[in-house]
Amino acid sequence: MNRTGTRRSGFTLIELLVVIAIIGILASIAMPMIGKAIQSAKKAQAAAEIKTIETAIKAYFNDYSKYPHNSGQQTDYSYGVLAGNDNKLLLNVLRAIDGVGNVNNVNNPRRIVYVELAERAVDVEGNFIDPWQRQYEVTVDTAFDNDCKNVPVYGTVANRPVVAWSRGQEVDDPADNIKSW
User: Fold this and answer.
1) How far apart are CA 65 and CA 161, in angstroms?
2) How far apart are CA 168 and CA 177, in angstroms?
3) What is the pTM of this model?
4) Which strands sit side by side in the sheet containing 178-179, from one edge to the other?
5) pLDDT 10s digits, 114-134
């Protein structure tokens, strides 16, 4: 008997399983690279935002001949979680916001906006946060000796009137910190 039938088109179960296995292998290879690319992008973003902080503080100094929120103390002043002072004290001055650290714009009477931040860069309390959702740390040389001495964790950072940093992805690992110096 001669069978003349049409051949079915489609994929066999084995062919589908092979394709799924190949896709799984490629995905497992790509995932670590994607994670590294995301972390690299976050580090670049943090570095740019740190530069923005420094530039804004220096511009403020050029206009007012003093640093923001300078209480006249003779030691350097730090902002951020490590220092125990939220950086919103500094940011309210630099953003010309009437609030904590700048009530009635006392520290920025001309109401000059030195920095504009994306909504995602400010937490609900008004602090400037890094890509890992933690406050940027900032130290300002309010002693005017060109040494930021009051840098929590790092000690003295010479020849810098302003330093800023992010503690990076791993808070307890200083090796991944993004620093302005």
Assistant:
1) 13
2) 5
3) 0.80
4) 77-79, 137-140, 162-166, 178-179
5) 999 999 999 999 999 999 999
